[in-house]
Amino acid sequence: MRSVKLLLALCAALLCSSCGPRMNIQPSIHPYKTTMPDMPDNTVPTAGRLDSLTAQQAKLYRNPLPATRENISNGKIYYGYYCLMCHGEKGDGNGPVGQGYVPKPTNLTLSPIVYATSDGQLYRAMLTGPGHDPVMIQTVLPEHRWPLVLYVRSLYSGEGLR
Asked: Residue 51, Cα to own-chain centre: how many angstroms?
């Protein structure tokens, strides 16, 4: 009699455990799909971070680092850390991870957009552009960012250290 009660209790527990709400049908929040609005014009960021500027403000920024062989070489090293898997070894957008993205990663060697943007815009896009936000802003160290801009510029002009 005791084993029958135990068996019935076990069956009841198994049945009840599957009656509750299921994770795959619950409403959920997708924070990485939310885009933050641009800061209002004439706003001065208090932290001095370039990634907090509007697209208009980023147009005015120039790379504070000179395009020396050492800075471009450092940028190439950092490119290997952060960019190579999506944009490819040559910057042509054919990285092994990036092939699964929509849109596909930008071909940094041919894109007229990359060529036409200011250093500040390229810096901002590198951190918050499609496929980058919010990951890159949290991953790329601040001291690696400007050398990366120099290296990406060198990819387009064909002067990269390959």
From this structure: 12
Alpha carbon separation from 44 to 9, 52, 56, 69, 126 (Å, rounded): 65, 9, 12, 34, 21
Q: Residue 140 domain-assigned?
A: yes
Amino acid at 153: R
Residue 97 amino acid letter: V
Residue 161's pLDDT band (cuts 50, 70, 90): very low
**Residue 71 domain flag:** yes
How many domains is the chain partitioned into structurally?
1
Between 119-128 and 142-157, two packed helices, what is the crossing angle to 10 degrees?
110
Which residue's structure tokens are 């919010």? 134
Predicted local confidence at residue 136, as pLDDT: 86
CATH number at residue 89: 1.10.760
The one-letter code for the residue type at 71 is: N
Full domain range(s) for residue 92: 67-157
Please report how many Cα atoms fall inside a 13 Å half-sphere around the Cα of residue 133, on the Cβ side: 15
